[in-house]
Design goal:
The chain is mainly α. Helices cover about 85% and strands about 0% of the residues. The chain has a single domain, classed as Up-down Bundle (ABC transporter transmembrane region fold), CATH 1.20.1560.10.
Amino acid sequence: MTRDRSISAKSVNRALIRRILGYGRPYRLFITAFLVTLVFTSLLSVAQPLLFRRIIDQGISVGDSRLVTFTALLIGIIAIVDAGLGLVARWFSSRIGEGLIYDLRTEVYSHVQDQSVAFFTRAQTGALISRLNSDVIGAQQAFTSTLGGVLGNMISLVIVLITMFILSWQVTLVSLLLVPLFIVPARWMGRRLQGMTRQSMQLNSDMSVQMSERFNVSGALLVKLFGRPADEAANFSGRAEQVRDIGVKMAMANRWFFTALTLVAALATAVTYGLGGNLVISGVLTLGTLLALVGLLAQLYGPLTALSNVRVEVMTALVSFERVFEILDLPPLVRDAP
């Protein structure tokens, strides 16, 4: 029941997409409300740097304390509203995700219960439990993390770029010159991390299968009868060692990835301050506009990182659905007599 697939090389199966969308149909109102919440959250995130610009250029620079106070209060209100929208979005996401997990788990459980006795003599209990737990959760992420992340990041990216171009097309264009240095390593490392993640999931699944098959009466008797407890312990130790080693590799790869992206973002900030600062000195830009651009730039690279690996994330979610559907599509091997 274990299949090894190359996610990055897979193509989208339209029939699979239609089948997946069918599971989201009962939650279409929640999904719509979730996406609307993401739009408002993206708009509010752009509003804050613009209000900081107003405080500096129209308040502090001219000594208007009333405007400074009013704008500061407005920023505080926006922060509170943004926090509230974040909670609302999280509720919608949880409602959709947990509902989908419930639907898939109950359907898989009922389908497995309908299988013949011959099915249970051939199937691995640990593998079935893994499908019912980890793969169902991976499928659930398609409607929450993946869908919300892709659309939310696209909305944020478009709004931030439009705002930056309106403020200063010169600074924005120069800042975008560093985008390839950001996207290329993100895509490369994203694929590598995805491969290690799948390997880690498989190794953990193999370890769980061994525990499920040995931590019961029949499994324990089998080991005792054949007198191989030392071999079983050595086998499990080897699997646990592989899980440990891949965990260390993933931790270091994530750290290198984060360090590289942080470095590129810092270089982009330095370029923005350098060019923008000279434009402020020459009178082309105001100080508030420069600080607003720097604030918006910080919001630009997060969505770029996420979208650079969106194909990998989508394919991962599709693989999880496929693994669940493999169970749901299993016909009884030998039908039992009624």
